[in-house]
Amino acid sequence: MASSRLEKIGNIYTRVSGLIRAGALKWEDRPLFYDIYTAFPPLKEHKYKEDPPNIKLRNIFYEEDKERASKDYSNMLAFDMNEKKPVRTDYVFKQHKAFESKPAKEESKLFDLKNLDFNKE
Amino acid sequence: MLPKANAYGLFRIISNNLPKRFFSSAAVSEIKELELDTPKIVNGRVNPLTHPDYFNVGNLFTVRDLLEARVHFGHKVGSLNDRMKPYLFGSRLDFTIFDLEQTKEHLQRALNVAAHTAMQGGIILFFCRSSINAHTVEKTALECGEFAHTRYWRGGTFTNSKVQFKAVTRLPDLCIFLNTLNNVMLQHTAIRDSAKMNIPTIGVVDSNCSPDLLTYVVPGNDDSPASIELYCKLFKEAILRGKAKRKEFIEELEALEKEQAS
C-alpha cells in the first residue's frame, strides 16, 4: 500500500487524504482510522515542533494561604489529603474566619494550638 | 502495509447495504460535512459514526473520579514543556496542576475513538515504559483481548516489520500510550514510528511531555499508579463496549444471510 513516511509534515490524516486525492491510494483501501478520524477529529491538532503558545501560568492561591504563611503550623500532625471529613486545619481556618473582625490580641488566644482540643469538633 | 482482507472494518461490510452517499468514492468531502448533532438513521440502524456518543463513554467517569485518581497533578514548573501550557489550570506552589475539564473532554474523545476502533475490528496496542505501571497495563490488555508492549522498544518493529518478523505483519490500528516518554525521558520511539506508518495514537501527556506526533492527546498525570489504573479501567471498558457491539452486528449479519439463503 502506498504511504508516506515523512511524519513531520502534516498529520496522518492529511497524508492519507493527500494520497487518496492524488489517486495513489484507492478509497476502498483507506486505513481503518480514516472514517473514525473524519467523524471524530482530535479536539486540538498539534503541528510538529510548533511555537509554544504565549500563555502565562497563573499561580493558584487560596484565602487560607495568608494564614498558613503567617504562622508556624509545623506542629500540626500530618493528615490524609484524600480524607473527605474535615481535618484539623479546616477547624482552625473556620475559627479564624469567625473571629476575623475581632482585635488582634484575641487572635493570639484563638490560635493557641497547643491548648486546642481538636477532638471536640 | 496492512493485508487487505484484515484491514477492512466491520462497519464497512455493513455499509455495503447502506445508501452510497455515506461511503462512496466521492464521499471524502461529504463525510466531512456529516452533522454529528443528530444521529443519521439508515435502514432502521444508526450509523455509529454519525452518533456523537454511540458507546455512551460519557457516563464512564466524572471529573471527581479524575481528581481522586490524582490525574490533576503535573510535574514541577521547572520541567514544564511550554506546549502543555494550554492544558494547565495553573501552578500550585511550583507544581503544575491540570485543568480537569479539558482532560475530561480529551479523554472522552480518546475513549470514543478506542471503542470505534474496537468495533471495526482494529488491533489495539498499549504502551507504557514506567516499570511500576507495566503490570497493570499488560493485565488490562490481556483482559480486553488486546496487546501490550511495555519493554524496550527495538527500532524497526513497525517500520521494518517484514524483515524483523520474517513475514508480512499486520500492524496495530491504534496505539495507546499510557506514558509517552521512554525510560531516558525522551519521547517513545514508537510514537514516531506510528506516525510514519499512519497508525493513529492516543497518548497521556504529562506536563513534562511534548504533544508532538500524537493524534489524540490526553493531558494528565502519567506517573501515579492510581491514575494509570483509572485510564486502564476506562480504556478497557470502552474497548469491551466496542467489541460487544461488533459481536451484535456480526450476529445480525449472519441472521440476515441465513434468511436470504433459505
Automatic annotation (TrEMBL), chain A:
Domain of life: Eukaryota
Xref: InterPro entries: mS23_dom_met (IPR023611), Ribosomal_mS23_met (IPR019520)
Alphabetized GO MF terms: structural constituent of ribosome
Biological process terms in GO annotation: translation
CC per GO annotation: mitochondrion; ribosome
Pfam families linked: MRP-S23 (PF10484)
Domain (Small ribosomal subunit protein mS23 conserved): residue spans on this chain: 2-118
Name this protein carries in UniProt: Small ribosomal subunit protein mS23 conserved domain-containing protein
Organism: Chironomus riparius
TrEMBL record, chain B:
Homology family: Belongs to the universal ribosomal protein uS2 family.
Subcellular location: Mitochondrion
Domain of life: Eukaryota
UniProt key word NADP: no
Name of protein: Small ribosomal subunit protein uS2m
Purpose: Required for mitoribosome formation and stability, and mitochondrial translation.
Chief location: mitochondrion
InterPro entries for this protein: Ribosomal_uS2, Ribosomal_uS2_bac/mit/plastid, Ribosomal_uS2_CS, Ribosomal_uS2_flav_dom_sf
